[in-house]
Design goal:
alpha/beta, about 500 residues
């Protein structure tokens, strides 16, 4: 039945062509409004979903890899030692030059020069003079005895160990903690079991810290800032059962080398009392229970050793309270704590990478010398520069490989700040290793912050396939009806145009 039939009958139905919402221009206006909204919304959608990807200074980063920080060092021989051995200067210079050629990694970043008394004084100057015995002083002086002054090999070996201390390869790198501007030092007295016969309630920790730890911290303040805390715990059970030993008429507990690696019971011991993001170095004085006392460290053959402490790489040090101390007392006096904190000071220096004094060489004073501090400053600055270069190179490499990784203004500014800090580190290394360390530390901090920026990591594991999986269900249900309606209306308009042209021809 056509529309004419609807119009002629009295059924009450209206002709569809007379319905307002079925008129062609209204239907097309409604359809066009949808498409207009979509077209106008496209720029906003593109802006909101697009990834900001600013250009990084790739060429500068890659050129930094070829750059090296250089510390000029001058060694001056005093007139007294030259008179004792006139050829010492030239012989030592030859031996040191051979050492630089044979061990380039050890001398990396060091520009060593030997100069006479009349030469221009350099900013980093060390003096070698004749003395009663071979020793080092805090004022960057090396006193050489008359016997050692006759041996150029001995003098060159001492200078090599002082200026470029050798690293014990893997063990040294695993022991030393990663560089940080701030460290927290946690000193803890642990009672395995607070029984009446083996219980330490208090200790003179403040006096021991003042005597052994604070002077070392004061000298290392040029590299780090320290926060010190102490605590006493009364229940710290071991996670394993020590080996039982028979020592004459008494029984003892033995700790094997395997036991030392799992000595820390992290599940039940609360060693860090504060809340901070700074790295923590722990120094634990462990008081064994009456059942496990006395406790000894044994060797691979099961024999007790004289060792009372051991070091856990990049974690801290543990000292076991032995029978030499008055273990039945409720209080540890300053005299009782002397061997403990003297050991803690040595272990702290080892954890922070302080180079040891060469064998056979005495030192004026009881703490660090300027030779050791300068060597540590140079080594830490070199490590920071190398770490900054590697991190910046990794950032550029990742951005080049992952096309959808965003690079915001914050990341770009951090990369530029890291490059500027590296440049300052190179410039100040000529005058001051301390300033070079400060700039290199800032460069490493900026590079690390750029690498771990949350904006970069957000889309690191979000490939393009995931976008298609998200957008397809959302837009397919909307776009398909609109496209079909557009095609149908276009076809209807085209048929109507053809009918109108045919009518005009007739």
């Amino acid at each position: 039945m056509d529309s004419a039939a609807f119009a002629s009958t009295g059924s009450g139905f209206k002709d569809p062509r007379n319905l307002s919402f079925e008129r062609d221009w209204i239907r097309r206006a409604v359809l066009a409004s949808y498409w207009i909204v979509i077209i106008l919304a496209l720029p906003f959608w593109w802006h909101l979903t697009s990834i900001q990807r600013l250009a990084l200074p790739t060429s500068q980063v890659r050129s930094q890899i070829q750059s090296n920080i250089v510390f000029p060092i001058a060694v001056q021989f005093d007139t007294s030692i030259i008179q004792q051995n006139p050829s010492l200067n030239s012989q030592v210079q030859t031996l040191l030059r051979d050492s630089v050629i044979n061990e380039p990694g050890r001398w990396r970043g060091i520009d060593l020069r030997l100069q006479d008394r009349n030469d221009e004084v350099a900013s980093s100057l060390y003096t070698v003079a004749l003395g009663e015995q071979t020793s080092i002083a805090h004022s960057r002086h090396l006193w050489v005895s008359k016997t050692d002054a006759q041996s150029a090999t001995r003098v060159s070996s001492i200078l090599s160990d002082l200026i470029a201390p050798p690293e014990s390869s893997t063990s040294h790198s695993q022991r030393v903690v990663q560089y940080s501007d701030h460290y927290r030092l946690a000193f803890t007295l642990l009672n395995e079991d607070a029984t009446p016969n083996r219980f330490v309630e208090t200790w003179d920790v403040q006096a021991a810290l003042t005597e052994f730890i604070f002077p070392l911290m004061s000298q290392l303040s040029i590299l780090h800032n320290f926060t010190v805390e102490s605590q006493v715990q009364y229940h710290a059970p071991l996670a394993f059962e020590p080996k039982r030993l028979t020592l004459g008429d008494t029984e003892a507990s033995g700790l094997t080398q395997e036991d030392l690696t799992v000595f820390i019971n992290s599940a039940e011991w609360t060693l860090a009392s504060g809340v901070s993001n700074d790295p923590v170095l722990h120094f634990v004085l462990f008081a064994p229970s009456e059942t496990h006392s006395p406790m000894n460290i044994i060797d691979s053959e099961g024999r007790p050793t004289n060792q009372s402490s051991f070091l856990l790489p990049q974690w801290g040090s543990i000292f076991i309270l032995d029978n030499e101390l008055n273990s039945s007392s409720l209080h540890l006096s300053y005299n009782d704590l002397k061997p403990v904190f003297r050991n803690f000071a040595t272990q702290l220096a080892a954890l922070l990478g302080v180079p040891p004094v060469p064998l056979g060489l005495s030192m004026e004073g009881s703490f660090l010398s300027d030779w050791q501090l300068d060597a540590l400053l140079r080594r830490r600055a070199l490590q920071n520069v190398q770490g900054s270069q590697d991190t910046l190179h990794s950032i550029v490499k990742l951005v080049d490989q992952i096309n959808n990784m965003p690079v915001g203004q914050v990341v770009r500014d951090d990369v530029l700040d890291a490059l500027a800090s590296l440049h300052e580190a190179y410039r100040t290394a000529v005058a001051s290793p301390a300033l070079a360390l400060r700039w290199s530390s800032k460069a490493l901090s900026m590079a690390s912050r750029a690498f771990f920026n949350p904006g970069m990591l957000a889309l690191l594991y979000f490939p393009a396939e995931h976008k298609y999986a998200v957008y397809t269900p959302l837009f397919a249900s909307i776009s398909v009806p609109l496209v079909v309606a557009l095609i149908r209306d276009f076809m209807a308009w085209r048929r109507g145009s053809q009918d109108d042209e045919g009518g005009e021809i007739k």
